[in-house]
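Why does residue order matter? Because the sequence determines the fold. Keep that principle in mind as you read this record.
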Amino acid sequence: MTEYIEIRGARENNLKSISLRIPKRRITVFTGVSGSGKSSIVFDTIATEAQRQLYENFSFFVRSFLPRYPQPDADSIDNLSMAVIVDQKRLGGGSTSTVGTITDIYTLLRLLFSRLGQPPAGYANAFSFNDPQGMCPECNGLGRKTGVVWEELIDRSKSLNEGAVRVPFFAGWESTSFAASGLFDNDKKVADYTSEEMDMLLFSKPRKYKLRIGDGSMNATFMGVVEKIEKAYVRRDIKTLSERTQRAVEPYLRPRPCPLCKGARLSQAALASRIDGRNIAHLAAMEVGELVSLVESIRGDAVAAPVVAMLVERLQHMVDVGLEYLSLDRPTDTLSGGESQRVKMVKHVGSSLVDVMYVFDEPSIGLHPRDVHRLNELLQKLRDKGNTVLVVEHDPDVIKVADHVIDVGPGAGRAGGEIVFEGPYEGLLGAGTLTGRYLTRALPIKEAPRPPKGSLPIRNARANNLQDVSVDIPTGVLVAITGVAGSGKSSLINESFLPQHPQAIVIDQAPVGASSRSNPATYTGVMDDVRKAFATANQADAGLFSFNSKGACENCKSTGVIYTDLAFLDGVKTPCEVCQGRRFKDEVLAMKLDGRSISDVLALTVHEALTFFRVREIIRKLQAMSDVGVGYLTLGQPLSTLSGGEAQRIKLASELHRKGNIYVMDEPTTGLHMSDIGHLLAIMDRLVDSGNTVIVIEHNLDVIRNADWIIDIGPEGGNKGGRVIFEGTPVQLLEASGSLTSRCLRPREPAAA
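Structure:
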């Protein structure tokens, strides 16, 4: 007998009081256009309520340390299981977090070396670069030692009295302390210093001196310029400091491998301990695909056998999700959103828990079409263990493996929020919904590509896994950079091409803003023109029409809500009783433009605003947002609530008016419904026709089919990639041998469509 998660009267965000029965222990895929309400159902309603109810089982004291989840706006939500949420948020963790530590694979590796390593170095923590017993004492386990570029901080042509020490992030008293120390001839040019004097100025260890203050004196400590900077900023993880401090200090620091551990992060005792001639750093630096077979060959006693078996299982899970090209020592903050999500999956695949509800947010992001089957097998494996799997997805190949499909729509924003189809995949194909119509539709291949106007050369690129790559990127055309995950696409463009062309406009998936005060209107510049229009119509100061300035409601400080802290209970958020949640002062709300207040205008969607405004500049910017497929967003929606794909398209909208430039787009189809790919291609074509060069890193086959020129990197990921496999047009790619992209392109050709 099938059990169901039952939802009645869900009204979160744009949901229109929907009711659902979602089968448990099945794969259910939620489809629909961007902004239709998929995430509102899966994340804001189901996952949020599951987390909230789980945390309610803990004591008030424990709950005070846990995230607080509001109760979703729904009449009832029943039969939930514990939720494991695997989203697209990038993994942070700073300099000491790696793929190995985040997946716990490195923990098993440490345990193995503590059992079998010769000579023995101690317990497992003796092999940890995050533990004082195992970390390199020279670099504190960071693997890199940052040196101070003192030549840029000392003007050798001046004396101390003339301001020879010019460290911009020193306080005034710090800069003058060198002259006040009494250790130097303050009128002597630094260029004339003896080696001993120079050594004291730069590298002197702390020493006491008497600092004169008026008629008296006080004890003070003198340190050399380099010693002072290293103590304050180098002998600690600089990423723990504020962004402002990092920006001020980093130009004068140059990282280099630690001279003691040579970048391995570990103590000499840990590095001396080996298994079959290799130390733990060697194994952590190997690609996972190669490490699996090496670990399998390790023979030890009965105590080590279970560790080896578990290591092999965990490593194989990484291979199964398409991450065989990563190494365990790869820092987690260098992973893409798609890689971060798949790394999170690895932690859960080997779990023995059953009847868990796994929630995935577009898990196919960043996966080459060749590797999507691996993801599907992972989802099926989780289901077969007796778990409920909920997936928000746009990829037809993932939708195909669903036991149950829920299509949300019919449109986006206010035009969505309804269930337009529920049932099996086969039923969706004939349902007539937007998703159903586009599932088996593929755009035709471009037969007549544009001729290039010139070329931008890349010579002898060796970043990361690139193998001395030299390639010419044609200008005045749409160029697609393709290849499997980890093949070197991003290394070629982001690390080899962009440093040579800093004027290029980069549109990636980094968040556009995390503030509730920033919205599509402010980011694209529409708000400036709207404020001017209101100011002109009402003969008033334009600053009044900004909730970040003079017009803000003073009671709620322009947030629109009042937060009430209930100590150990969940806080309560209520609409501001003065502005009624509209964020502006009453006198500002009384001023109208064509019958609408500034608050009314911010509540308009982009599509609605297009019919409301008559100002040419406003219409141009609004049309750009509509063209990139975010016309359903309201002008005042906080940017912090946007998905990665929506954020990328907002960036694109803000740059569409620029001409004669190079555009670099990193997987712009992320978060896009199949029906919107054609709109995105039209925008790219418009940019190229306006004289721009558009370079797109992409896996989507429809985008690849419609490029003018394709550069395929591969053939595989990691050290099996990093070479140019193919250069040419889409038609030529169909005949290319040795290209995995070519193989995937052929069967999707819509010969009979």
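Residues 182 and 209 are 8 Å apart (CA to CA).
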